[in-house]
Amino acid sequence: MNKEQTLEDLYAYGDKRSPTNLKKGIGHFNVFQLDDFMGENSEPLLFNRRIYFKVTLIIGKTRVHYADKVIDIEKQALVFSNPQIPYSWESMSDKQSGVFCVFTESFFQQFGILSEYPVFQPNGNPVYNLSEEQAKYFQQIFQKMFTEINSDYIYKYDVLKNIVIEVLHSAMKLQPDELFVNHQSTNGSERISSLFMELLERQFPIENVNHQIELRSASTYANRLNIHINHLNRVLKETLQQTTSDIIANRILKEAKILLIHTNWNISQIGFCLGFDEISNFSNFFKKHIGVSPTNFRKQMIV
């Protein structure tokens, strides 16, 4: 099976975003001009969304989608995203620019807990529309990031942590936007369905015996998508003609079969990876849906 993709792997392309600031033991931080990733000749962002947090200052009319919610950015805004909550955004104007920084949770080790900040919580507000004066203020902060990361100061990463914290607290002092628009249309349902499937698939494939999936219940997915569980159930029944629990169970079973056939892990290890703390629970789950125990399934498939 393929090994887990790392930041070093992603930077191996050797383009202008070389990881000069990538050091072992301190996590990872970098800052970019948004312009380099936009337009006809734009380059893809070479990061795995699973492993980083992101703060973006967007200049220009934009629309950000979070599950069944839409936030319109008329002029400029700060957008916060984390590895757990998927989102998408679409340009509403040809004139757009901005800056963004990315960082891993380990970058803030012993410095703070990122998930505790409201801007990074599932029920928090991830977008702050800004006045022109506020936008200039945050542009200056991001410029400090560029200056610091390009410096030779030995403690520059400590300084960068403080600059990121300054962005977080300055944003939270602003009155949060309440420009959410609920969409009960087919498009809204399709968007929720798509984001649900993205959250589900993001947990796979399982690459090692220490990797345990986190999302196993319908309520957990609803919480991550910031919608009511009944609404999630209705949407998936409408768009995929299956219940939320059945979709989750089928994907877990698919991964279980792969691990049983293509690895030499024992049944207990596979059950743990799939979220079962007891081997009996995994065996009963598997036999209920497949008709045979995991052990017998493996014997039948491996000859």
UniProtKB/TrEMBL annotation:
Coiled coil: none annotated. The keyword Cytoplasm does not apply. Keywords: DNA-binding, Transcription, Transcription regulation. Residues 190-300 form the HTH araC/xylS-type domain. It comes from the Bacteria. The keyword Magnesium does not apply. This is Helix-turn-helix domain-containing protein. One of its GO terms (molecular function) is DNA-binding transcription factor activity.
